Amino acid sequence: MQPRDLICFNCKNFSVMGCPAFPDFEIPEEITSGENNHKKPLPGQGNDIVFTPKTEDDELFIIS
């Protein structure tokens, strides 16, 4: 199986806790498959959170 480069990994809303657009922690297959770029809320989504590209300022750097 090939690893996928999920669009979610490049979204400023996505974190290790998941995606706030889908608080039940189940990102729909149409998004994870790349079929839908999540530029608009999905029907029945329950909020208006959509894909927002990360910027350099959104990156978290941990200094040890």
Q: Any idea how many domains? A: 1
Give the terminus-to-terminus CA distance. 34 Å
Radius of gyration: 13 Å
| Beta-strand share of residues | under 5%
Q: Indicate the overall shape.
A: globular
Given the helix and strand composition, which structural class is it?
little secondary structure
* Number of extended strands: 0
- Fraction of residues in helix: under 10%
Provide a count of the helices: 1
Order of helices and strands: H
Oligomer: single chain
Report on the biggest sheet.
Answer: none
Q: Poorly predicted ranges (pLDDT <50, ≥5 residues)?
A: none
Arithmetic mean of pLDDT: 85
List the helices and strands and how they pair.
Layout: H1 29-32
Descriptive tags:
little secondary structure, about 0% strand, globular
